[in-house]
Amino acid sequence: MDFLVLFLFYLALVLIGVVTICICSKTHYLRGLVRGGAQVISHIIPECLQRAMRKVLHYLFHTRNHTFIMLHLLLQGLVYAEYTWEVFGYCQELGFSLHYLLLPYLLLVINLVFFTLSCVSNPGTITKANEFSLLQVYEFDEVMFPKNMKCFTCNVRKPARSKHCRVCNRCVHRFDHHCVWVNNCIGAWNARYFLIYLLTLTASAATMAVVSTVFLVQLVVVSDLYLETYVDDLGHLQYLFLTLPRIVFMLGFVVMLSFLLGGYLCFTLYLAATNQTTNEWYRGDRAWCHHCPHVARPPSAEPQVYRNIHSHGLWSNLGEIFLPAAAHCAEKMN
């Protein structure tokens, strides 16, 4: 049982770490911890190694590359290979319903379709051709998105809710975030693909977790296999059901993935339901008149706090995700 205890302890630490990062992400505590950790590391690691690490990190997170796409497909392939090689066959022998066992494969096909669309589709690139039409889509709030702002890199006026992505080197309409896993920005025109991709990825991980759990429960508990023991080569007493380490490890991985993806999916659905983007949510708690030198205000002006003026009810907000305003018109102009 030592293996299971250590694995559950590791799983708990990962989940606690993720929750802590989520709580601290909008405070100065995380930045202080990162800064302090970087200072400590800088005194331990040689300068040449630090430069190499910075180059690698810059390549991975600040340039467009296919590293995370390949990692995504590799992990997905390994999980499905293990599921097919062991869990699927054992479950068939135990009389599991074939429809139940084939559900992860159906979700995989749908997921790969929307993963590809998220990777290759235009997120809403702002150009001279569609600049005027996109300026009419959203109202300027004069706090986070003031009028008459210009992106000097792209040489276009910035519509409300847009942002210049330094990784892709383009301005994106209704910019949400740049996702390294799809090597693309998430914006007005591909947010629906990303949402369905995330939904099916979460569902496939959860489905495999449920199938694997039911299989192990039936194999171990119902058959009393958990009581069976054997003596290994070192003379230690071991539990027989731990001779299926790959299935146990896969189960732990997909359970952890289900929690992480489920939490992020809930957050994404919350943003969609309230008509916010990740960029707006992250920046939304700040007072902006002191952080926007381009906005001229009297010295006595009180700090203005960003408020969401784009939410028009649940169904209207969701409709904006799946039928983005001005998408077809702007595409025709291109």
TrEMBL record:
Residues 148-283 form the Palmitoyltransferase DHHC domain. GO terms for biological process: protein targeting to membrane. The chain crosses the membrane at residues 6-25, 59-81, 101-120, 194-227, 247-273. It comes from the Eukaryota. PROSITE patterns: DHHC (PS50216). It is a multi-pass membrane protein. It is found in: Cell membrane; Endoplasmic reticulum membrane; Golgi apparatus membrane. It catalyses: L-cysteinyl-[protein] + hexadecanoyl-CoA = S-hexadecanoyl-L-cysteinyl-[protein] + CoA. GO terms for cellular component: endoplasmic reticulum membrane; Golgi membrane; plasma membrane. One of its GO terms (molecular function) is protein-cysteine S-palmitoyltransferase activity. Its EC number is 2.3.1.225. InterPro entries: Palmitoyltrfase_DHHC (IPR001594), PFA4/ZDH16/20/ERF2-like (IPR039859). The keyword ATP-binding does not apply. Pfam families: DHHC (PF01529). Keywords: Acyltransferase, Cell membrane, Endoplasmic reticulum, Golgi apparatus, Lipoprotein, Membrane, Palmitate, Transferase, Transmembrane, Transmembrane helix. The DHHC domain is required for palmitoyltransferase activity. Belongs to the DHHC palmitoyltransferase family. This is Palmitoyltransferase.
